[in-house]
TrEMBL record:
PANTHER family: HTH-TYPE TRANSCRIPTIONAL ACTIVATOR MTA (PTHR30204:SF90), REDOX-CYCLING DRUG-SENSING TRANSCRIPTIONAL ACTIVATOR SOXR (PTHR30204). InterPro entries: DNA-bd_dom_put_sf, MerR-type_HTH_dom, MerR_fam, TipA-like_antibiotic-bd, TipAS_dom. Signal peptide: none annotated. Keywords: Activator, DNA-binding, Transcription, Transcription regulation. This is MerR family transcriptional regulator. It comes from Streptomyces tauricus. Residues 1-71 form the HTH merR-type domain. The keyword DNA-binding applies. The lineage of its organism: Bacteria, Bacillati, Actinomycetota, Actinomycetes, Kitasatosporales.
Length: 253
């Protein structure tokens, strides 16, 4: 079978102009032509286009893509294995970014006053207003909510990035603490819970031990928060909740 350029463009999600360009530079020369001289693509051409788009998605420039695909020593299976490794590494990086974003938004991150460009640069495409609306529904009439709105309205892109770095570092250390077998009621876990409380106080509002205890319960009761924490490590939501409770008792007692 062979396929016209318009159909191939639609299947691959690229423009006809892109396919014309690939043909002009010799990256993807269609295997046939119609009687009228129009490009016709074979199944082999489609396989090559898929490889091209994989590498382009991974950020490879066109000349490097051509060199990789035209290497006479290359095994097609090796290409797929290499692409799988590259994609896996990219997924891991994106997951770490998502973790940092979710931490920065957790509980009461709202009132962001960034340009649209800055917002999506910082948050990787996830609109923080969605979280802000949930926060307003839960706590819109509280002084803590009002204080958080006042503070975050002054934050710029660098502030949000600095906050992200803090919470990402905290999250990595908490995950390591759990991996080492530390109980939630142990001093190291309680110290981590105290850091968590102080982070909220520093960036958003005065988080009392009573408020913090309520947040800990929410991390377990609210499916969205529980899913987020448990995606980092199974059981993390309950572990953090118990550490927060123990830390509050330690300070209030």
């Amino acid at each position: 079978m062979s396929y016209p350029v318009g159909e191939v463009a639609g299947l691959a999600g690229v423009t006809v102009r892109t396919l014309h360009h690939y043909d002009e530079i010799g990256l993807l020369v269609p295997g046939g032509r119609s009687h009228a001289g129009h490009r016709r693509y074979s199944d082999a051409d489609l396989d090559r286009l898929q490889q091209i788009l994989f590498y382009r998605e991974l950020g490879f420039p066109l000349d490097e893509v051509a060199a990789l695909l035209d290497d006479p020593e290359a095994d097609p299976r090796a290409h797929l294995r290499g692409q799988h490794d590259l994609l896996t590494a990219r997924i891991e990086k994106l997951q770490k970014m998502a973790t940092a974003v979710e931490h920065a938004m957790e509980a009461r991150t709202m009132g962001i006053r960034l340009t649209p460009e800055e917002r999506f640069e910082v948050f990787g495409g996830k609109d923080p207003e969605e979280h802000a609306q949930e926060a307003e529904r839960r706590w819109g009439g509280t002084e803590a909510y009002a204080e958080s709105r006042r503070r975050t309205a002054r934050y710029g892109k660098d502030d949000w990035k600095r906050m992200q770095a803090e919470v990402a570092a905290w999250g990595g250390r908490y995950e390591a603490l759990m991996a080492s077998g530390e109980p939630a009621t142990g001093e190291p876990a309680m110290d981590m819970a105290e850091e968590h409380r102080q982070h909220i106080t520093r960036w958003f509002y005065a988080c009392s031990y009573d408020i913090h205890r309520g947040l800990g319960e929410m991390y377990v009761a609210d499916e969205r928060f529980k899913e987020f924490y448990d995606s980092m490590r199974p059981g993390l939501a309950e572990h953090l909740r118990d550490a927060i409770t123990a830390n509050a008792a330690r300070h209030e007692g």
